[in-house]
Amino acid sequence: MAALLRGSRCLAGKCHNHVNAAQVSIRSMASKTQVGFIGLGNMGNPMAKNLMKHGYPVIASDVFPESCKELQELGAQILDSPADVADKADRIITMLPSSPNVIDVYTGPNGILKKVKKGSLLIDSSTIDPAVSKEMAVAAEKLGAVFMDAPVSGGVGAATSGKLTFMVGGLEEEFNAAKELLSCMGANVVYCGQVGTGQAAKICNNMLLAIGMIGTAETMNLGIRLGLDPKLLAKILNMSSGRCWSSDTYNPVPGVMEGVPSANNYQGGFGTTLMAKDLGLAQNTATNTKTPVPLGSLAHQIYRMMCARGYASKDFSSVFQFLREEEGQ
């Protein structure tokens, strides 16, 4: 029903702002129909759970069958491929590691677009190259479907608590339809503009996050070397002008905070490999737009070095440990 409604409003890219009362009624009646979810990793798993908590039946798929077990036990229907999910659901969310994964899940031999229904809403929450988001949107539009990019910020903790920030790019006419689902998984759902602008916002955020985390790690390490207690130093930073998310919410020094990766040998959280990937995307877009990003470039090199030295699977805050080892401790 939702698919028929969306299809009637948006075909061949000709969308209309006017939505009459009957259409709104149909949309709300269909609101708790099943939702497809592809990619049940560290982020996708808790996101899909939150959809289920809000009463949405979930149809899911993941390339690793073991990732589906927990969700299946909670009542989700597990299918073999993205194409199978597209055959059953007309609203699908994808949460995947990288651009090649997204291309395969959407356009591969068993991809969503092989069986997508006309009028389907496809929301990609992966962090990928904005150009790839635009390519997927064009491919979806040719089949009468709507693609939106909606990358997230907040990490596994926010994914679990339903407090993610979504940065959404795509047709403004479809934003409310996307927001209905995304609000079940996030505290902030922000419309950024056309397809690809969500990715642009996410890439900019993560470049700043990496620079801030490295700066926090360097600062904490210097203070410790100067004889300061790390908890005291963190307290002072967090009531001073140096305060940032990496210092007050996600401190990289073991023992300073509970419930963060640094308190658990840097397990869980946001992997160093993924941060290096996002910084690579920032570098590519900076090169294409001729934008100078010297600190972003340096952060990219640091995280690439970390990946080569055994930190790939650790949380990105392990840059503190990396710096300690670099100084021979």
UniProtKB/TrEMBL annotation:
One of its GO terms (cellular component) is mitochondrion. It catalyses: 3-hydroxy-2-methylpropanoate + NAD(+) = 2-methyl-3-oxopropanoate + NADH + H(+). GO terms for molecular function: 3-hydroxyisobutyrate dehydrogenase activity; NAD binding; NADP binding. It is an enzyme of class 1 (oxidoreductase). Pathway: Amino-acid degradation; L-valine degradation. The keyword Oxidoreductase applies. One of its GO terms (biological process) is L-valine catabolic process. Residues 196-322 form the 3-hydroxyisobutyrate dehydrogenase-like NAD-binding domain. It comes from the Eukaryota. InterPro entries: 3-OH-isobutyrate_DH-rel_CS, 6-PGluconate_DH-like_C_sf, 6PGD_dom2, 6PGDH_NADP-bd, HIBADH, HIBADH-like_NADP-bd, HIBADH-related, NAD(P)-bd_dom_sf. Keywords: Branched-chain amino acid catabolism, Mitochondrion, NAD, Oxidoreductase, Transit peptide. The keyword Mitochondrion applies. Residues 34-193 form the 6-phosphogluconate dehydrogenase NADP-binding domain. It is found in: Mitochondrion. Its EC number is 1.1.1.31. The active site is at K202. Pfam families: NAD_binding_11, NAD_binding_2. NCBIfam families: HIBADH. Belongs to the HIBADH-related family. 3-hydroxyisobutyrate dehydrogenase subfamily. This is 3-hydroxyisobutyrate dehydrogenase.
